[in-house]
Amino acid sequence: MKLSFSPEDEQFRVEVAQWLQQNLTGEFEKLKFRGGPGDEHMFPHERQRWEQKLAEGGWTCIGWPQECGGRGCSIEQQVIFNEEYARAGAPGRAGHIGEGLAGPTIIAFGSDAQKQKYLPGIVAGTELWCQGYSEPGAGSDLANVKTRARFDEAKGKWLINGQKVWTSLAHESDYCFVIARTDPDSVAHKGLGFFLVKMAQPGVEVRGIQQITGTSEFNEVFFDNAECDAEDIVGEPGDGWKVAMGLLGFERGVSTLGQQMQFQNELNAVIREARANGADHNPVIRQRIARAHAELKIMRYNSMRMLSGQGGSDGSLQKEALIYKLFWATWHRSLGELAMDVLGPDSQILEDGPYQLTRLQSMYLFVRSDTIYGGTNEIQRNIIAERGLGMPKEPKVAVQ
């Protein structure tokens, strides 16, 4: 496991920090520390302009190969960028799903035509993506998807019908990568396709899901004969599961270090509040803060170990990656509970009109979803047991 950086990498750190300091000013000053969990609704248009500002400076897709529009930065440099980005308080990335998920997947599994069509818009920060995986009956059990894709010979297009749910930022996205069943008689992970679908077209309807935060980051997306060009299936019909699993490997990749710096920013906010209202004199609160700090360090070291042995360009990771989602989701939920206990009675009180949630209140409510989306804690434990430890698969219970 590599825990230190070379002098060249540290110089790169200085370059990143200086650029952020010089550019998080003017119209972007108000974006600092905004757009995190429970705060994604804030300044959406300004954050999209920030994506384009990053692109102008060459700071989007830095880990992509140079021939695909990236900088070809090493893992160490990508870690440094994500850490400095969060340390500077730069806003939540509007283009994260395109840069971190869609793009690497197209690079790994897509055709040359798909790379030429879709990668430039992601690099430029002008085209945003969302993820069409979960369905009402196929959340953590992705292999249970019911959305269908039928090829229309007359049109020369795929026609997609079905419903996706919990689709983050679908209302702001230009494209969606969709898992759909190409073989109507197939079951489980067989007979799936991975499609690149334009959102602004007839047959695609987005409905916001109001959360307990009062915002609508998640959405339902309905496909009613939505069209997808024949050349916009990634791989062949039936390859969808392989491509989808590769994408999940990218999701557990280097951006996790930036996520942890955002967690550190939130923990710092909790500590500031504890010092301000005297909660830091409570020995139990102090112990919980110390535990949160220690577990965040553990999270970092495990991630560094995981990334030090990162697999090939197909998104594969070491077995340490299997525990990451379970660990951070549980930790983050506990941080929300700690924040409310630090606030004490004030956690139940809203500030003056229009009675918006405070940042810590919103964070507490939003992180309740962390242990559900992206694979529930229960599913994550099964994955660890079966794939990591080689234990027998959980028996299937027949529904009467």
TrEMBL record:
One MF annotation (Gene Ontology) recorded for this entry: flavin adenine dinucleotide binding
Keyword list, A-Z: FAD, Flavoprotein, Oxidoreductase
Gene3D superfamilies linked to this entry: Acyl-CoA dehydrogenase/oxidase, N-terminal domain (1.10.540.10), Butyryl-CoA Dehydrogenase, subunit A, domain 2 (2.40.110.10), Butyryl-CoA Dehydrogenase, subunit A, domain 3 (1.20.140.10)
A GO CC annotation given for this chain: plasma membrane
Cofactor dependence: FAD
Entries under InterPro entries matching the protein: Acyl-CoA_Oxase/DH_mid-dom, Acyl-CoA_Oxase/DH_mid-dom_sf, AcylCo_DH-like_C, AcylCo_DH/oxidase_C, AcylCoA_DH/ox_N, AcylCoA_DH/ox_N_sf, AcylCoA_DH/oxidase_NM_dom_sf, Mycobact_Acyl-CoA_DH
Protein family (similarity comment): Belongs to the acyl-CoA dehydrogenase family.
Domain Acyl-CoA dehydrogenase/oxidase N-terminal: 6-125
Domain Acyl-CoA oxidase/dehydrogenase middle: 130-225
Native organism: Pseudomaricurvus hydrocarbonicus
Name of the protein described by the UniProt record: Acyl-CoA dehydrogenase
Domain Acyl-CoA dehydrogenase/oxidase C-terminal: 238-388
